[in-house]
Design brief:
With 69 residues, this protein is α+β, with helices and mostly antiparallel strands. Helices cover 30% and strands 17% of the residues. The longest helix has 11 residues.
Length: 69
């Protein structure tokens, strides 16, 4: 599969998303496709599929609750 000029030979059989690397498809299957978000914000009901998204959420939305602020 070619998307926007980039070869993406690794395609998800569930949702048809395509990736250029097998490791990206593996991550997609493990954390994203048909999986509930597993990372819960300790300050609100927000849930994220990736830990780095949760960290960004906490910094952007709850920075007044963090120590040192």
């Amino acid at each position: 599969m070619r998307i926007a000029g980039v070869q993406k030979p690794f395609q998800c059989m569930r949702c048809s998303r395509a990736y250029s690397r097998a490791s990206d498809l593996t991550r997609h299957l493990r954390l994203e496709c048909g999986v509930e978000p597993q990372f819960q914000c300790p300050h609100c009901p927000k849930r994220c599929r990736h830990n780095y998204h949760l960290n960004s959420h906490i910094i952007n939305k709850h920075s007044t609750l963090l120590p040192g602020n």
